Amino acid sequence: DKVLAELIEPYEVRAAKLREFLEDVKPSLRYDIVPLADPYGPSVTDPDLQCLVVSEETRRGGEAVNKKRLENGLPELALYEILLMKDPNHGQNEEEKISSSSLRQRLLGTLLRPPRQDPALPSRPYVIGLTGGTGSGKTSIAKLLGHLGAFCIDADKLGHAVYVPGGPAYERVMATFGAEVVNEDGTINRKALGAKVFGNQERLKSLTDIVWPEIARMVKEQIREADAQG
């Protein structure tokens, strides 16, 4: 549930930065940086560990570690609590401590890399693709761009439109997946269709091979319409 998880640096980069920081603090110590495949890592199985460094917000996690260690027949760890540095410039909706989540939040609206220059692409209309997981804000950003004068194309709506009776994918979907995916009123039963394809890679590919090219064609039609409107 991290904020903007897509912008978290890869594990290898974070581990390298951590090692550089620790060795700068005290080069004489040996550091083992271990990837955590579960919430506990080696802390609940390593008999040689004696101390766990926690912050105020992670103390409960440290207590959970000790509970697991006792269940595993291991002695409790000493919990050494450190105070986290406050961020004097934190915003109203940001964490008080210095936080990578806050830093990622501040990246919103900044250009991470310049637009790809492709001589085969016309300079107008300028097409921006919004993508992301459920709840990531695609609809909100599309509305904001729409208020600024952008022509918005909702691929989800087009995805529904291809299935309607008379739609470009209707006959092929019905022929490929059978009458059992059709409701009494003639519309495609998307729930029944989903049950047929999800979990079956071959059927899912058959569906996407029918539907995606039609959605792409409809998108291109709408782009041409936007261009005609200026």
UniProtKB/TrEMBL annotation:
One BP term from GO: coenzyme A biosynthetic process
Keyword field: ATP-binding, Nucleotide-binding
Xref: PROSITE patterns: DPCK (PS51219)
GO molecular function terms attached to this record: ATP binding; dephospho-CoA kinase activity
Xref: Gene3D superfamilies: HUPs, P-loop containing nucleotide triphosphate hydrolases
Matches recorded under CDD domains: DPCK (cd02022)
Source taxon at top rank: Eukaryota
Keyword ATP-binding annotated: yes
Protein's UniProt name: COASY synthase
Organism: Nycticryphes semicollaris
Taxonomy of the source species: Eukaryota, Metazoa, Chordata, Craniata, Vertebrata
